[in-house]
Amino acid sequence: MTNLGTDSQPAVNRAMEASAYLAGVRAALADLPAALREDLLEELPGHLAEVQAEGAGSLVERLGSPVAYAAELRASAGLPPGPVPSAPSTVDYRELARRCDEAAGRLAGYEKGSDLLRDLLPGWWVLRGVFATVLLMATIGLHWYLGLVTVPLAVVMAMVSVRIGRASRTWPLPAKMIMIGLNGLLSLPYAASLLSRLS
Questions:
Q1: CB-based burial of residue 133 (10 Å sphere; 0-12 exposed, 13-18 middle, 19+ buried)?
Q2: Which of 67-71, 82-86, 94-98, 152-156 has the highest mean pLDDT?
Q3: Domain spans of the chain?
Q4: Which among 87, 190, 197 has a CA at the least distance from the CA of 134?
Q5: Separation of CA 86 from chain center
Q6: How far apart are CA 101 and CA 95, in angstroms?
Q7: What is the pLDDT of residue 25?
Q8: How far apart are CA 14 and CA 100, in angstroms?
Q9: Which of 92, 126, 157, 190 is the most exposed place for a label (fewest CB within 10 A)?
Q10: Degrees (nearest 5) of the Cα angle 14, 18, 24?
Q11: Whole-angstrom Cα distance, residue 142 to residue 144?
Q12: What torsion do the CA atoms of 103, 106, 112, 117 make, to the nearest 10 degrees?
């Protein structure tokens, strides 16, 4: 008994391959007028069937890619080459960030802006300790200008802040994000005071 499903499968595969190849060639000729395009493609289905009947190997292996075959059709008809397909426009955000980093660094005489920020970090750590001291004394009702208490406390707070800052370089990203948030909260009273004076 003949197994029609098994025998017909290669024929179905060949038909699908030929249809896909023909569609690829047609797409590569899409810039041409419809009548001229169909004239160039008129004999292609029969040619594909002949190539498939000659032996093993895919159409791409035997004839080249559909784009290459379309180029041969253009050349044989004396037509100029088709348009080169443009690559999709993509933005490399890492490259953009790198260029911005370098541009910011050049303004300050550094190779990169991140190098400047790295050098400024110790100063921010000390300043953060001073801010924390003033905020603490204001919270407990002491005047920040009482040097007898403020200066030693500010020195201690600055040392603690520097120690935390140095240790934070090895912290995981979530911990660093929490520290950045705390820094922002610490700066809010001073920002509010500055805005009130400007208004």
A1: buried
A2: 67-71
A3: 11-76, 113-198
A4: 190
A5: 19
A6: 10
A7: 92
A8: 54
A9: 92
A10: 145
A11: 6
A12: -100
